[in-house]
Write a structure and sequence with these properties.
With about 110 residues, this protein is mainly α. The protein is about 45% helix and about 5% strand. It has helices at about 30-40, 45-55, 60-85; strands at about 1-5, 10, 90. A three-stranded antiparallel beta sheet has the order 2-1-3, with no helix packed on it. The protein is elongated.
Length: about 110
């Protein structure tokens, strides 16, 4: 269980909005990064078609594939920068037993 970053209410796993204050718990940029990965994967289609068409001296498929790959890479990089520069909307609760304990001292008889 985590805590809301703004009101420190206990949250269930998988919740995207705080039930107490209504703040959004998703990190900004993660959707953009996901879309960037999809664009990168989809850029392989023009590359695959372009490799077969290169024998005809037509480089359009390779150019489109390269530009799509570049656009997807920019989306991934920008999404990561945006996600890493923002504050985490969810806080981990401080564990009660995580405080360092004093070592036991031997008693002399």
């Amino acid at each position: 269980m985590d805590l809301c970053g703004s009101c420190e209410t206990r949250l269930e796993d998988g919740v995207t909005k705080c039930p107490a204050c209504g703040s959004d718990l998703k990190r900004p940029g993660t959707f953009l990064e996901l879309c960037g990965w999809v664009v990168i994967v989809m850029s392989m289609v023009p590359f695959a078609l372009g490799i077969h068409i290169v024998t005809q001296k037509d480089y359009t498929g390779l150019i489109i594939g390269a530009l799509t790959l570049f656009a997807g890479s920019l989306m991934v990089v920008y999404g990561r920068i945006k996600a890493n520069s923002s504050a985490n909307p969810v806080k981990a609760p401080a564990a009660l037993d995580s405080a360092p304990q004093k070592p036991l001292q031997a008693t002399k008889k």
